Amino acid sequence: MTCLAGWLLVGLICAVVPFCAGSASAEPDQQDCDVAVAQARTYAAALPADDLSRYFAERDLHQALIEAGNGEFDDCLELAARAAEEIRERRHTLPPGEKLKVLKADE
């Protein structure tokens, strides 16, 4: 039996055996999402308002709240984690003197 087939078998067994369900993590809910978004928003607030990483993190947090509104709490947690990672790693930076020009919808 290959490793993949073994994992598939274990997954099928856990799908029908009740004690496996208790060991799996619970599905995220609105409260989990709200906590994750609030924590990432706190990190974002520590950066200057014109910081590029803050801008991208805030876009991810906005999308996280949209996903939560659609009942997709796992996607909400993923986007909140991505926003927090963006802030920690500061992936997006501009050279000194340059600014991000965000166009409005009518531009």
Describe the structure.
- The longest helix is centred in the middle third of the chain and has 18 residues, at 52-69.
- This protein has a domain at 47-92.
- The chain is globular and about 45 Å long.
- The chain starts with a helix and ends in an 18-residue tail after the last helix.
- The protein has 107 residues and is mainly α.
- 66% of the residues lie in helices and 0% in strands.
- It has helices at 3-16, 18-23, 30-45, 52-69, 73-89.
- 20% of the residues are buried.
SSE topology sketch:
Layout: H1 3-16, H2 18-23, H3 30-45, H4 52-69, H5 73-89
Helix pairs in contact: 3-4, 3-5, 4-5
Produce a short descriptive summary:
With 107 residues, this protein is mainly α.
Number of alpha- plus pi-helical segments: 5
Largest sheet: none
DSSP strand tally: 0
Secondary-structure-based class equals mainly alpha
The string of secondary-structure elements, in order, is HHHHH
**Coarse shape:** globular
Report the sheet-strand fraction. under 5%
Bin the helical content.
Answer: 55-70%
Mean pLDDT rating: 78
- Spatial gap, N to C terminus: 60 Å
> Radius of gyration, Cα only, in angstroms?
20 Å
| Poorly predicted regions | 3-23
